[in-house]
Amino acid sequence: MTKNRHQAVGLTDEQVLDMYRYMLLARKVDERLWLLNRAGKVPFVISCQGQEAAQVGAAFAFDKEKDYLCPYYRDFGAVMVFGQTARDTLLSAFAKAEDPNSGGRQMPGHFGGKKYRILTGSSPVTTQVPHAVGIALAGRMTGENHAVFTSFGEGSSNQGDFHEGANFAGVHKLPVIFFCENNKYAISVPLKKQLACESVADRAVGYGFPGVSVDGNDPIEVYRVMKEAVDRAKAGEGPTLVEAVTYRLVPHSSDDDDRVYRDRGEVDEAKKQDPIITFSQYLKEAGLLTDESESALSNEVQAIVDEATEYAEQAPYPAPESTLMHVYGS
Ligand SMILES: Cc1ncc(C[n+]2csc(CCOP(=O)(O)OP(=O)(O)O)c2C)c(N)n1
Ligand SMILES: [Mg+2]
User: Is 268 inside any structural domain?
Assistant: First the structure.
């Protein structure tokens, strides 16, 4: 990576350090979830590992006071930039009453929260896409003109919801940014068995708006492309499809064994491009991070994760008598 590229795209030194901090926080929270799962304390984990640069770089391009996020289950980095905390994630993993996503009712990774401007997610993949398009249409009708950030995996870009949402947004030039995190697998299905076209970004032409493919391990490039897309959206020029090419460094979920469908050599090769490592190198070359400040930051983030774990483990469960709340109307 060339030195100080961040300044050329309008990011300050403080902002790129902040990006790295969010990436590290997302990674360390994720690692903690796996430990808790293997210790039998939390039932399920769905990971962001390998996709933090894409998620954080993309989320930095939005106005957190105005814009909306309709994320998918891996988006720990994005939801944290929009305001969710390590405590929130741990509360959700332990299914505690204070979980802001669903009060301990949904599986982990089903993010949501009015105060964070994050739309509640649903389990069928890609349902968030038409919702995002609807929020953009509502913003046009009310004059709020917010941009909407929606994300999904490349496998999910085969779902009807993606195509219907993209078509409608293209026709009405709505301010939606479709963000595909192409991590090369849909559970055990590799990319070449998912798409016959060259890239997910190519699909945009069919809906009459630009499609851009970007290195998802590079948060500065992801930010640059997303910022252009957000600026276009807010200028009334319509949607953009951005494909961030990443790699899922861990199994699909805590219930998956990826050794049965992908070669260890491939995973080891991808680990060399782990964005936590490559972005730390960039920051060091730019003179913004040293071994000492990196280890201080790492300790600081680890302490946040420890505190969040402790807090969430002690927190109360939802009251049993509230089980049917929001399920049946009376
Ligand atoms: C409509 C629907 N079909 C199938 C599933 C089961 N499922 C959950 S995640 C997933 C794979 C999605 O792959 P991709 O979109 O590439 O996202 P990734 O998990 O790789 O980030 C599938 C098939 C689902 N949740 N919803
Ligand atoms: Mg995928």
Answer: yes
The whole-number pLDDT of residue 328 equals: 77
Asked, for residue 210, whether it belongs to a domain, the answer is: yes
- The model carries a pTM of 0.97
Total H helices, total E strands in the chain: 11, 7
DSSP structure class, residue 59:
H
Domain annotation covers residue 82: yes
For ligand 1, residues with CB inside 6 Å are: 74, 123-125, 152-156, 181, 183, 185-187, 248, 252
Q: Angle at the Cα of 38 (from 88 to 272), degrees rounded to 5?
A: 85
What is residue 251's three-state secondary structure?
A: coil
185 Cα nearest atom in ligand 1: 20
Query: What's the number of domains the chain is made of?
Result: 1
> How far, in Å, CA of 245 to CA of 240, rounded?
16
Task: Answer yes or no: are the C-beta atoms of 208 and 239 closer than 8 Å.
Answer: no
87 is catalytic: no
- Per-residue pLDDT tens over the stretch 257-281: 999 999 999 999 999 999 999 999 9
Distance in angstroms (rounded) separating the CA atoms of residues 131 and 177: 13
Sequence-separated (6 or more) residues with CB below 8 Å from residue 109:
46, 73, 74, 121
**In CATH, what number is assigned to the domain containing residue 70?**
3.40.50.970
pLDDT given for residue 330 in this prediction:
60
224 flagged as catalytic: no
Question: Average pLDDT of 303-310?
Answer: 98
Question: Is the pLDDT higher at 325 or at 1?
Answer: 325
Which ligand is closest to the CA of 155, given by its number?
1
CA 36 to ligand 2 centroid distance, Å: 24
Structure tokens at 203: 């699909």
Task: For residues 180 and 296, give the distance between their C-alpha atoms in angstroms, rounded to a whole number.
Answer: 33
The torsion angles phi and psi of 237, rounded to 5 degrees, stand at -90, 0
Is 328 domain-assigned?
Answer: no
CA–CA dist 309, 325 (Å, integer) = 27
Does position 1 have pLDDT exceeding 60, yes or no?
A: no
Which of these, 1, 4, 10, lies nearest to 231 by C-alpha position?
10
